[in-house]
Amino acid sequence: MTVDITPLRRYRNETPYPFCPGCGHGSILDKLSEALATIDIDPASVVVVSDIGCAGLSDQYFDTSAFHGLHGRSITYATGVKLARPELTVIVIMGDGGTGIGGTHLINAARRNVGITVLVFNNLNFGMTGGQHSTTTPDGAVTATTPGGNLEHPLDICATVGVNGAGYVYRGTSFDDDLSTRIVEAIRHPGFALLDIWELCTAYFVPANKFTRRGLESTIERLGLATGVLYQHDVAEYATAYRAASRDLPSRMRPVGIPTTHPSPLTDTTSLVVAGSAGAKVRSAARLVGEAAIRSGLWATQRDDYPVTVKTGHSLSEVVLGPRPAAPVGVTVPDVAVVVSADGLRKVQPMLAAMGLNGVVFTIPEFADVVTGARLVVIDPTASPVRIPKAQLALVLLTAAVARLGLFPVEAMTEAAAAGAFAEENLAAIEAGRGL
Length: 436
Fold this sequence. Notes:
Blueprint: H1 25-39, E1 46-50, E2 65-68, H2 74-84, E3 89-95, H3 96-101, H4 103-112, E4 117-122, E5 125-126, E6 132-133, H5 157-163, E7 168-173, H6 179-188, E8 193-198, H7 205-209, H8 213-222, E9 228-232, H9 238-246, E10 270-277, H10 282-295, E11 299-305, E12 314-322, E13 336-339, H11 342-354, E14 360-363, E15 375-378, H12 393-405, H13 410-418, H14 423-435
Parallel strand pairs: 1-2, 1-3, 3-4, 4-8, 7-8, 10-13, 13-14, 14-15
Antiparallel strand pairs: 5-6, 7-9, 10-12, 11-12
Helix pairs in contact: 1-6, 10-12, 10-13, 12-14, 13-14
């Protein structure tokens, strides 16, 4: 089948703009439409990305794909689109407000040289929300939030992205006759391109500052800001470079199956909580139990909890085992608890107190006086013929719990440990736990 694509003379649809009389947004969008028609891009391959503000209304006026999101985040959406579909032409429309809110995103997209084109509709204030000052408001300017004149120095958007690696950077105004040509150049540039387009906000900035087109141009001069194409150089575009670098790498997304090699007598869902300290391999010990359970034909889920300090404080793992899938919800009263440190005990003390006679708590002599309604099993690591490091206590006691309760064969834990990292020390810990 042959498909004929008729070139568009304009990419604007027939919906009228909603902008205030004299606002620069409409003229910039008309120039964008001219630029797209000049390049003659298939509209199905163009994505216009916008966020909040008057400029954020723009995407709906084009016969292209569009993405509309949160204030200041348009560049993040555009980056994702470009990385996922590098063949698309991705154009960001954002105001100076969004530029300030999303400044980190702006810098990093420029630094990475992501192949998107950013049009900044820079009207020097937050126009949609009442004329508050933005990061580009000139010093001395009157706005709703700077009634005595702005004290801040305005952000130089072009210099900011330019020194951070942007491949094409332009500054001009919505009145520039060659604006559509500059937009064409920016879109055709393979890397990150930005146009800082100054314009008038006739609702707020113009009346508050008696601003005109001449005032716009003279302000640029007073601030010592150059106009025209300010940066232009070729650097590897990020999406292209990423694909080239990863093309021959093996996939890490292929799931690794866990074979069933042992039977388990378990007929009901059983929940275990392992409570220890950060850095004591609590989570990895719990993971070995989960994998061993799966090797024994059971279902297993694991949920971990630890503080933001990561290397200090408690480390808690909840493992739910059973012959049927269990909902991954938190354990409030476990069937089995393993406590190997004071940090862990403090965290699970309410759980232990709530446990009844059907529950079992495994711990070490240091916590033999723990308050619980469950049956208490105290295991002394010093009774082992081999020295047990503190970092292996969780795995040793878990192995002892599995063996004494008969949840599944300990051999399944041995197989899981042998197939994983730190096999030698984990196998030694399992052997020690089996003997206690």
